[in-house]
Write the structure tokens for this entry.
Amino acid sequence: MAFLQIDHMTKFFPSHSGGSPVCIFKDVTIKIEKGEFVTTIGHSGCGKSTLLNIIAGLESATEGGVILNGREAAGPGLDRMVVFQNFALMPWMTVFDNIRLAVRAAYPDWDREKIAAHVHKYIALVGLKGAETKRPTALSGGMKQRVGLARAFAIEPKVLLLDEPFAQIDALTRGVIQEELIQMWNATRNTVFMVTHDVDEAILLSDRILLMTNGPGARIAENVIVTIPRPRARVTVIEHPHYYKIRNHIIHFLVEHAKHDDVEVASGASDGKSPRVVDFEKESLILR
Amino acid sequence: MSTQGQPWMISVFLLAVFLTGWHLFTLRPAFDPKGKTDEQLQLMEFNGDIVRTPEGGYAWNPEKEKVKGVPGPLMVFDKARMELAEAFVKKGTNDHGIAYLVVYTVSRFAAGFLAASVVAIMLGVLLGLNKALFQAVNPFIQILKPISPLAWMPLLLYTVKDPKWTAVLVVFMAAIWPTLATTAFGVTSLRKEYLHVAAILQLSWFKRLYKVILPGAAPTIVNGLRISFGSALVAVVPAEMLLGELGVGYLSWIEWNNLDIAGVIFAILVVGVVGVILDSGFNKLAGLVTYQE
């Protein structure tokens, strides 16, 4: 059994017009090993954020469930911390207080000094030393998300859930924070599940990329192995021979295949249920 | 000189214009005995309309002037000086110095407003967190909200049988609805990511309330309190008048009963000053709990 397993999960939303419920995604099964960085890419509205929210316990699945470390994970918990797209920092708290709130919740038996030291350690880790007493309003988008990352890493969750974490950050800053995230992840080797629609970001950060078809009734169609060795950096990763192969494959999928309905995508998969594995180390698997 | 940078000078100018206009408008010509017989003058003196001056002539009786026409600014100023000189004097059961009256009104106001705020915020949070309950209770709030707090007074007086507490309750009734409605609104419109973070961090119900929900809804709650504050301030004056409870509102009424119009004007000014003091205090407190998105 994998460390984190999303098991035959289906989600229906009630329809706006009052008709029959709309199927967001259907029979999604994802297995993530401990220490793996797995990213799901799909078009807006394919349900990838809903999927992440269900793993976080913030929404509930219509069918299926989440198994973490051999136990069912129902409802939100400190073992699955989310880094939110819009940061979700409390604007009435300082940077320090935002992170301390999380640390105090995660380690209720720690004393004041230990908590403060822990918070300071993670503030330093994301390079925000000196900004402890600032409020989120006074920070740029990039700095806000650094606080979000520090808060998430500080409680040392079993799984880190990144919900389009850099979507609201300008392109130049985004690259810098992505590399900071790589360093933090290298240090902790957390299990990470990320959703994004940024292909380069996914390739830079992930071990595997799951490609999701468009909704309604979306499913995971392909499982792309990122065959670029770590450690990775933005400048070197693009020089790897597989980079543009993977990138073109994903973009081709997003432009062409994502539009296809269930049956056509399923025909590409080996058993019609589990996603097709795309591994550029094994060239024979590649049809194009 | 540019007038744009000196608003206070314009204020002073406007005040001067107003006071001068007031003074000229209320000025009465000096008593002119011409054309009046000695008998007429004696009768007027006997009636107290005029008095003999030390020089042997006649002048209007200053005591009677007080209740004739509208008093000018100088008379109001005289009255204010007199009242302020006796600010801390208690002359009788119903004649307490102006400082006492201000304290009575402020404490009556504070008691009613604070009690209403606490109740309204607690109920508002409860309603804000429970959508079904909010929808169920909202029609009642909408009906109760526009009722003038003074309309409750006879019923309150009948039930609590004590004018002192009735006055506080009138303030309470004036202050509760706006805060209740806006608190419930503020809690329902709280961004759901904050609640998501609280849920993931497994904060206890109490911690969730005072670390996330209350501070998050604080700007909206403060707006409600501000409306409540104004409505309570408006209610406290007539409540004192109608119930005969000592205070600045009552001062205005008792001066009217004394037919001392200068006193009435002075009481109105005191009500204004008390309002400004309370309001600036409120704004200071509000600044402490609001935040920018």
